[in-house]
Amino acid sequence: MRFLTYSLLAATLFILSCSSQQEGHLTVSSSKQLSGPAPAMAPTAISSNANSSASFSTSADPIKSIKEEPAAEAKETQTKVQTDRNSQVVSLVTAHAAQTAAEAMDRKIIRNAELTIELDAPAAGQRRIASIAEARGGFVVTSETMQDDGEGESKQHVTVTVTVRVPAMQFGAALEEIRRVGSRIKTEKITGQDVTEEYIDLEARIRTQRALEAQFLEIMKEARRIPDALEVQRELADVRTEIERLEGRRRFLENQSSLSTITATLQTPAPLVATSTSGFLESVKRAFGDGVSLTTTIILALIRVCIVLIPVGLLIFLPAGLLLRFVMRRLGRFRPLPRLHQPPR
To answer: pLDDT (tens digit, 9 = 90+) per residue, 93-151?
Structure first.
């Protein structure tokens, strides 16, 4: 009977030890899956206190991993936010660059150019400039030809002035082609006037006047008396006159900025004056010629003065002399006679 009791007690202790070892192996395997490989354990039997401490240490690893997960998520979120900010900055820079380019394209600039070109055949250069303007989508505004014959046929001087207008986008190309028309460019002047601010101001003022016109029209619909309607009509006429004036100025700026003006003056080369050595006889001849020219000039001046003074004398001095003579005669009649000297008695 006693032997049976001891056998039962030994079997119970063996079962309890086996169950505790199995629980320890399960806890270690779970900690390996959560936090990675764990240090090797002794293959011998482990006491209940050691098992409890091992289970506590392995249970602490999942808490550490749980604490590290929010930190990783926060870091990832911060990286995403920084990437979004960078993309927004890049998009803003791109938008600003696009807006700047659009504003540059919409600017209203009036460009003009004036050139003086020397060439042997100004008439041919005129036709070539006209063909350049037409090829670039422009047209000839004015064309003027002047010819100075001078003293001889060899001294003819021809001057042709051509004014053309070309689209603003073709201004540089057309100007470069016109430069190649002649052999030498004497003068060149290029001007540019930015009227963008004035154009924007005109558009704003036109919108304001349009709104004011609409308000006056509404007031006229509600007017009940004739004097009120006439007053509104006068104000409406003033507003419409201002709108027409502003729109005319806007159309002028659009025309001047969309088409550039190029004025080219074509001239024949100036004749070269040959320098000759002058001796004593040449100087005497030149002095004699200058004296004759001066004498001729003086005589012609005296003749002109006499011709001018003849009508002046007839119209002014002759009537004045006749009037003075008449007055003197009248005064002579009323002058008292002198007393005769009587001899003493």
So the answer is: 455 554 544 454 578 899 999 999 998 888 889 999 999 999 999 999 999 988 876 55
Cβ neighbours for 155, distance < 8 A, ≥ 6 positions apart: 149, 271
Q: Which residues contact 154 (CB under 8 A, 6 or more apart)?
A: 271
- State the residue for tokens 């806890």: 27
Residue, of 218 and 96, whose pLDDT is higher: 218
The alpha-helical segments, DSSP class H, found in the chain are 2-35, 48-106, 122-135, 171-179, 196-222, 226-258, 280-312, 318-333
Domain boundaries, the chain: 20-32+45-106, 109-267
> What are the residues facing 188 on neighbouring strands?
115
Q: Which residues of 235-252 are buried (b: 16+ CB within 10 A; e: fewer)?
A: bbeebeebbeebeebbee
Residue 86's pLDDT band (cuts 50, 70, 90): low
111: nearest Cα among 152, 171, 53, 60:
171
Instruction: Give the Cα separation of 1 and 3 in Å (integer).
Output: 5
DSSP letters spanning 57-89: HHHHHHHHHHHHHHHHHHHHHHHHHHHHHHHHH
- The pTM for the full model equals 0.49
Q: What is the DSSP string of 254-278?
A: HHHHHEEEEEEEEEPPPPPPPP---
